[in-house]
Amino acid sequence: MSIAEEARTELLASLQDFLEAAAVEPYLGTHKNESLGSATLEWRDGALVLDVGEFQTEIRARVDDDRELQYLIWEPPLGGLPVELTEDDAGRPQLVLARVPSNTHLTP
Question: According to the model, what pLDDT value does residue 41 have?
Answer without folding.
Answer: 94
